[in-house]
């Protein structure tokens, strides 16, 4: 058996080049005479790697000097809570909710701040974005939180919302590094690593300096972004292997043309897949066209029995993890940076065959 094309929503496909690099130095990394997983995070070699990974990410995303880059743990979910603890304490915060991850972010924030739903697409089943003129933003909010790419529903806010002077906080777990981005428009960008960055266990956060000075909830140091920033994200032992892999992925992105090239490739992949779905007369995607995700493409066949058959047969054909999220059903193809165009072509060709046999 060989590696299949992996359409998993996360943990997700990683660049094969990076996996091979990791394989080649799994036993002996750098000059350590040990693997990267077996050395101290405070040793020279690891610190040098950590610093290089930050420099590489800063260059890739053109991160301005007045932002810190943190390499944290806890998954994006923990930061649903930690963000309000750090920057929303005692005030209120606005949430733009366009899917299940946004809903979860609101729920986790509630114990720490008055988390207001300023806009939600719930009434439309999250198949459409709430129109801008319905957003009820409060200019005194501590921040505005949104999820530019909702991984489960496959819906995206493609333009950066203008929220005035209120810091904009974005959960970019499933679209970080997927395209060019003006970081200066954000207060915080954060992402669980396990889609476009590396293995799980790592959260990358880009946070504007002034937000580190806000009064926080009474809490232990370990939860404070300011303390992590002061200590190079090494207040405790970081997720060393995930961090190392993230560094490798940053170099891979740079080698392949940077985020602008990723964006072009991602648009080409998504356009090809949506065009086929829309023209197939067999498959459908329910998301309003202007808000379709470039990363996660949910689709279904004419009925659930065929969906089940599709998932089973596609897996056997080496097209992995196409089963849709349990709350949505059908299928979902996640086509992150590391999914080559050949994977999307193989999927479309399988879809054509399947439709011809079952239509
Ligand atoms: N936000 C988004 C947009 C996600 O796709 C996910 C799931 N991977 C999460 C948050 C939760 O991430 P984690 O499992 O790292 O807490």
Automatic annotation (TrEMBL):
Family: Belongs to the class-V pyridoxal-phosphate-dependent aminotransferase family. SerC subfamily.
Assembly and oligomerization: Homodimer.
Biological or metabolic pathway of the protein: Cofactor biosynthesis; pyridoxine 5'-phosphate biosynthesis; pyridoxine 5'-phosphate from D-erythrose 4-phosphate: step 3/5; Amino-acid biosynthesis; L-serine biosynthesis; L-serine from 3-phospho-D-glycerate: step 2/3
GO molecular function terms attached to this record: O-phospho-L-serine:2-oxoglutarate aminotransferase activity; pyridoxal phosphate binding
Cofactors: pyridoxal 5'-phosphate
Gene Ontology cellular component annotations, sorted alphabetically: cytoplasm
Reactions accelerated catalytically: O-phospho-L-serine + 2-oxoglutarate = 3-phosphooxypyruvate + L-glutamate; 4-(phosphooxy)-L-threonine + 2-oxoglutarate = (R)-3-hydroxy-2-oxo-4-phosphooxybutanoate + L-glutamate
Entry keyword Transmembrane: no
Post-translational modification N6-(pyridoxal phosphate)lysine, affected residues: 195
InterPro entries for the chain: Aminotrans_V_dom (IPR000192), Pser_aminoTfrase (IPR022278), PyrdxlP-dep_Trfase (IPR015424), PyrdxlP-dep_Trfase_major (IPR015421), PyrdxlP-dep_Trfase_small (IPR015422)
Binding site for L-glutamate: 9, 42
Source species: Ahniella affigens
Pfam families: Aminotran_5
All residue ranges annotated as the Aminotransferase class V domain in the record: 5-347
Enzyme class label: transferase
PANTHER family: PHOSPHOSERINE AMINOTRANSFERASE (PTHR43247:SF1)
UniProt entry tagged with the keyword Ubl conjugation: no
Name of the molecule in the record: Phosphoserine aminotransferase
Binding-site list for pyridoxal 5'-phosphate: 76-77, 101, 151, 171, 194, 236-237
Protein EC: 2.6.1.52
General function of this protein: Catalyzes the reversible conversion of 3-phosphohydroxypyruvate to phosphoserine and of 3-hydroxy-2-oxo-4-phosphonooxybutanoate to phosphohydroxythreonine.
